[in-house]
């Protein structure tokens, strides 16, 4: 019973918060909680502690990644700018507001992660406070960790 129940007469009797023939389905919705406090970002259902995204545009562990939506790049632009280049609107509040992703610097645009990897990936081209372009990628892995790769 995968450690989540007791076997009685070759049938699993599941502990509270577990279901399924082998008690392998968690009823806990915490892993499905999106950053906005909604289950699966309001764009999917939580099944066995995993989001099943019902809106095909959205993917990722909590249905928050949208490759075709405007906004992923703009939403993280200020934080990437202050973390990578120590400038921009959030320069003064960077350490409080912008520590929600892991950041990796790369030498050039061809060193950025490319589409086709298992994690949803957004390629971003944004202007900084000095009116210069900067490039980064934003992805979320299966553990819900956000990863940014930024061109130096």
TrEMBL record:
GO CC list: cell surface; focal adhesion; integrin complex; synapse
Keywords: Disulfide bond, EGF-like domain, Glycoprotein, Membrane, Repeat, Signal, Transmembrane, Transmembrane helix
GO BP term (any one): cell adhesion mediated by integrin
UniProt GO MF annotations: C-X3-C chemokine binding; collagen binding involved in cell-matrix adhesion; fibronectin binding; integrin binding; laminin binding; protein kinase binding
Keyword Isomerase tagged: no
Domain Integrin beta subunit tail: 73-152
InterPro entries: EGF_extracell, Integrin_bsu, Integrin_bsu_tail, Integrin_bsu_tail_dom_sf, Integrin_I-EGF_CS
The UniProt record lists the keyword Signal: yes
Protein name in the entry: ITB1 protein
Protein's gene: Itgb1_1
